[in-house]
Design brief:
about 0% strand, mainly alpha, single chain
Amino acid sequence: MKKSLKVLMLITDIGFLLYWMITFLGLLPKEMLYKDYTNEIAVAWNMSFIPLDILISVTGLTSILLYRRGERLWAPFCIVSLSLTFCSGLQAIAFWAIRGDFDIGWWIPNLFLLLYPLFYLPGLMKSEKPSLF
């Protein structure tokens, strides 16, 4: 596992866990909230990402742990985590694009989620013995 992948996964996985803790505690300043944050449907849409984002964090952190232990199962966990990360970013970007809401503060992190897995997934999927960390 390349060091850059490990760092990006840690940023993503810990970032998701922190984001949801901050969200549940209501610690985001109002100026950082997305458009229509008080709209019941927008809030439900945002909350619908919880299972996906938590699964991303669990599979990503598990992959890193398995890699450190020298277990080959790290690669399937990594592929699942990166695939789900891509999906999370894609779904959010699609939503914001359909709404015509181009708030750079929400687009940048979601473009990150959409794009960074694409640099690692091809190598992981074509290698019989993935060794990218």
